[in-house]
Amino acid sequence: MKTSVVSNEQSNGSIWAVALRSSLLLIVVCGIVYPLVSTGLAQLIFPSQANGSMVKDSSGNVVGSELIGQSFKDPSFFQGRVSSIDNDAAGSGSNNYAPSNPELLKRVQESVAQWKKENPEVPFSQVPVDLITNSGSGLDPHISPASALAQVSRISALRTISQDQLKALVTKYTEGRDLGVFGEERVNVLKLNLALTELSK
User: What residues form the membrane-spanning segments (predicted)?
Assistant: First the structure.
């Protein structure tokens, strides 16, 4: 009987020892080794992306990330997508309103009114839909090339830069489809506005 009790105690002790060793091994491998290796490889192979795809101005100062949209209130800059969270990178998302929701109708009407006020010379029928609709994340940093071109006349008048120069700038900063087939052509608003600032000097 005593032998059986001692044997059970030894067996339990052995199980606990194995569990402890396994836990320590997993902590070291998954909590230390793997993060260090993956972070090191990311810094080596994709340093820009690993550090947040930060965008710098001509002075080398970080002004934002190319992955997160910003609000440009000054009408002399290119405007991005509507954001129900005001491009707050602390969280993403948008109000999931149905097309019949009066709150959605109100927001769209406000966007349309603002557009007409700032761009009276551009017929509303020519306004690309992405300029008056919210992005799903609320953080979309891109607009379509057509949306950028629709703002050229306003910016040209406010900055006394020729429309041809601005159109050339939009073309220069238009990004193609990923791998030539995925997604749509797009323009990063932050990069475009940085280039616009340099052009205005």
Answer: 24-46
